[in-house]
Amino acid sequence: MPDMLNSRTFRRQFINRFVLIISTLAALLGIVMLVWILGDVVLRGFGVINWNFFTELPVPPGEEGGGLANAIIGTLVMTIVAALMAVPVGVMAGTYLSEFGKHNLFGRLVRSLSDILVSAPSIVVGVFVYLIMVKTMGHFSGWAGSVSLAILMLPVVIRTTEEMLRLVPGEMRESALALGAPYWNMMMNIVFRAAKNGMATGIMLAVARVAGETAPLLFTAMNSPYWMQSMNEPMANLTVTLFNYAMSPYNDWQELAWGAAFLITVSVLCVNIITRLILSSGRSKP
């Protein structure tokens, strides 16, 4: 009997150590790959960043100078417009799911569709917007690009808002209602204030998700070598420009592609760091 117990203990310890070693090696492999990618992007892209990169238009291959100012502005404009579309709708939908759609059929349907949309390939969203907007209007446009990005942002905002509002204790709602506050007043001044850090985190995560999307913009906004005149025309953006320049045979365009990759990487990294700071500050408050 003691021999059997010792054998079982040895087997459990062996399996535990084996799984621990495999998990550690997998984590180290992921860290090495991440550092490798980031290091390559920084080493090749940082040297390209200069004043001209942010202020000048692209130039034909072989000419000196030039930058990606139009693509930077186009990316910022489309991302902001997409956020203005997705955030209000996502916050209202998340509020409905948290407060009124916990158990009814419509709430379960919206929640399921939102979960499906989170995992939907971005290229499918791009093809969908192409069919309903680009093909209907007869041309690519910044509006179509913003709509495709807004669709990708929407489920993240919805689910984050719902989860953050559910974390607010029910006693806070009941106390406000018992004091005679209208429901809308209770939501605006009590619940939303208590969940504002988590909701802001969800919004920033949604922005970070679409910041590096290329596939939907290939089908909607396409690209342009010129300054943006309006949203109703093809619009330059960093991700499609990066794709085009990286695939080109010209060394100067490939260098600008590395600069675009560096800028996108740093932007997404900054958004994630700010998101974590907001989340940690919310948790540290009593």
From TrEMBL:
Annotated membrane topology: Multi-pass membrane protein
Primary site of residence: membrane
Annotated SUPFAM superfamilies: MetI-like
GO MF annotations in UniProt: phosphate transmembrane transporter activity
Cited Pfam families: BPD_transp_1 (PF00528)
Cell location: Cell inner membrane; Cell membrane
An annotated GO cellular component: plasma membrane
Domain of life: Bacteria
InterPro entries referenced in this protein's UniProt entry, alphabetically: MetI-like (IPR000515), MetI-like_sf (IPR035906), Phosphate_PstA (IPR005672), Phosphate_transprt_permease (IPR051408)
Residue ranges of every copy of the ABC transmembrane type-1 domain listed in the record: 72-275
Membrane-spanning residues: 18-38, 71-97, 109-134, 140-158, 256-279
Keywords from the UniProt entry: Cell membrane, Membrane, Phosphate transport, Transmembrane, Transmembrane helix, Transport
Gene Ontology biological-process entries: phosphate ion transmembrane transport
Record family assignment: Belongs to the binding-protein-dependent transport system permease family. CysTW subfamily.
PANTHER family: PHOSPHATE TRANSPORT SYSTEM PERMEASE PROTEIN PSTA (PTHR42922:SF1)
Protein name: Phosphate transport system permease protein PstA
Organism: Mariprofundus ferrooxydans PV-1
